[in-house]
UniProtKB/TrEMBL annotation:
GO molecular function, one term: cobalt ion transmembrane transporter activity
Record keywords: Cell membrane, Ion transport, Magnesium, Membrane, Transmembrane, Transmembrane helix, Transport
Membrane topology: Multi-pass membrane protein
Reaction(s) this enzyme catalyzes, per UniProt: Mg(2+)(in) = Mg(2+)(out)
GO CC annotations on file: plasma membrane
One Pfam family linked to the record: CorA
Compartments, record wording: Cell membrane
Provenance organism: Allosaccharopolyspora coralli
Function: Mediates influx of magnesium ions. Alternates between open and closed states. Activated by low cytoplasmic Mg(2+) levels. Inactive when cytoplasmic Mg(2+) levels are high.
Chain spans, region Disordered: 1-27
Protein name according to UniProt: Magnesium transporter
Signal peptide: none
Transmembrane segments: 302-321, 333-353
Family label: Belongs to the CorA metal ion transporter (MIT) (TC 1.A.35) family.
Length: 359
C-alpha cells in the first residue's frame, strides 16, 4: 500500500522529547499493548488506560492506542467507562461471533472485521480446517483507538511497528490506525486466496486427469471452507465503502482515499472467492460425472461376465433335468462335445464384449 501523505508535522514540544519513562505497571492479561502517540511518535514508558487518556487530553493533542486480546466483561468494563464506549458495541466486542460491520455512535465508531488464516494439511479429511477464522474489532474516537482481537492469529504487532516507523502516517490519528488494521486484514485475505488457488489447481488437475480417482468429499470440504471465507469477505465491502465516502467525520479526507484503495483490494479478493465457488461447483459436477461413468463401466463389465457365465449355466441346466429320452446323454462323445460347446460360447462372447469395450 502507498504511504499516506503528510499533513505537516508540528514541532514536537520539549515535553515529548524529554518525556521521562514511566515505571512498568501491572496490566490486565487481555491488554497486549497500551501506547500514547503525539505527532506520530510514541511516548516512552508504560501506561494504564486511564493514565494514557489523561496524558493525551492534558496535552490537547495525540491519541491512545490500546490493543486487547479476548477480554472478558470485567476486563473491558473499566476501559469502556473511561472512554465512553457504547454498551452494545462493548457486548459485541466481548462475545464476538459478529458479521463484518460498521456502527457509528455519538462520538465513536465501532468496526468489526473477520480475520482468516490458511492452514496447510498434508491430507484432507472430513474434520480438516483449511481456513481458520477469527475476529477483529476496533473502537475509534477523536483521541483513541481500541482494537480487540479474538483468535490465535492475526496479531497487530506488525501493523503497530509499521505505523510507528512512519510518523507522518501515524500523525493522522486514530483513522490512520483503522486504515492500517483494515489494510492488514485485507492483505491477509489475498494471501489466503493465493494459497487456496494452489489447492484448487491441484484438485482440478486430479479431476480431469485420465484414469484417476478423487473423492468428492475433498471438493465438498474445500467448498465449505471457501464459503466460510466468503462470509468473511463479502460483508466487509459496505463498511469500507462507507469509510471511503465520508461516513464519519473521524476519518479525514486524506485517509478516505486510502480506504478506497483497500476497497479495491477487497474487490479483487471478492472476485477470486466467487470464481473459487463457481469452479468448485464445476469440479463437483465433473467428479460426479466421472464417478457415474466409472460405475457404468463397472456395470457393463459385470453384465458381460454374467452373460458369459449364464451360457454354460443354461446348457448345464438343460442336461441336468435328467429326462430319459435325451439322445445326447447316451452317446460316447456327448459329455466332451457339450463341454466344448460351452467353452466355445464363452470364448465367442468374451471376444465380442472385448471388441465392444465392455471388458
Amino acid at each position: 500500500m502507498p504511504s499516506l501523505p503528510s499533513l505537516g508535522l508540528r514541532h514536537r514540544s520539549s515535553r515529548v522529547k524529554n518525556a521521562a519513562p514511566r515505571p512498568p505497571q501491572s496490566r490486565p492479561l487481555s491488554v497486549v499493548d497500551c501506547a500514547v502517540y503525539v505527532d506520530g511518535h510514541r511516548l516512552a514508558g508504560h501506561w494504564s488506560h486511564g493514565e494514557a487518556i489523561e496524558e493525551v487530553r492534558g496535552r490537547g493533542t495525540g491519541f491512545v492506542w490500546i490493543g486487547l486480546h479476548e477480554p472478558d466483561e470485567q476486563q473491558i468494563n473499566g476501559i469502556a467507562e473511561t472512554f465512553g464506549l457504547h454498551e452494545l458495541a462493548v457486548e459485541d466486542a466481548v462475545h464476538a461471533h459478529q458479521r463484518p460491520k460498521l456502527d457509528r455512535y455519538d462520538d465513536s465508531v465501532f468496526m468489526v472485521l473477520k480475520t482468516v488464516r490458511y492452514v496447510a494439511n498434508e491430507k484432507l479429511t472430513a474434520t480438516s480446517e483449511i481456513v481458520e477464522s477469527g475476529e477483529l474489532m476496533a473502537f475509534v474516537g477523536h483521541d483513541f483507538v481500541i482494537t480487540v482481537r479474538h483468535g490465535k492469529h492475526a496479531g497487530l504487532g506488525v501493523v503497530r511497528r509499521q505505523l510507528e516507523s512512519d510518523p507522518e502516517q501515524l500523525a493522522l490519528g486514530p483513522a490512520a490506525v483503522l486504515h492500517g488494521v483494515a489494510d492488514h486484514v485485507v492483505d491477509s485475505y489475498l494471501d489466503v486466496t493465493e494459497a487456496i488457488q494452489g489447492d484448487i489447481d491441484t484438485i482440478e488437475a486430479e479431476v480431469f486427469a485420465p484414469r484417476t480417482t478423487i473423492d468428492a468429499e475433498q471438493i465438498y470440504l474445500m467448498k465449505r471452507e471457501v464459503l466460510d471465507l466468503r462470509r468473511a469477505v463479502m460483508p466487509l465491502a459496505k463498511p469500507l465503502k462507507r469509510l471511503a465516502e465520508g461516513y464519519t467525520p473521524m476519518v479525514p479526507e486524506q485517509v478516505r482515499s486510502y480506504f478506497r484503495d483497500v476497497d479495491d483490494h477487497l474487490t479483487t479478493v471478492s472476485e477470486r472467492v466467487v470464481s473459487f465457488d463457481e469452479l468448485l461447483t464445476t469440479l463437483v459436477d465433473a467428479t460426479l460425472a466421472k464417478i457415474t461413468l466409472r460405475q457404468n463401466t463397472d456395470m457393463r463389465k459385470i453384465s458381460a461376465w454374467v452373460a458369459i457365465i449364464s451360457t454354460p449355466t443354461m446348457i448345464a441346466g438343460i442336461y441336468g433335468m435328467n429326462f430319459e429320452n435325451m439322445p445326447e446323454t447316451n452317446t460316447v462323445f456327448g459329455y466332451p462335445v457339450t463341454l466344448l460347446v460351452m467353452l466355445g460360447c464363452c470364448i465367442a462372447l468374451f471376444k465380442i464384449f472385448r471388441k465392444n469395450g465392455w471388458l
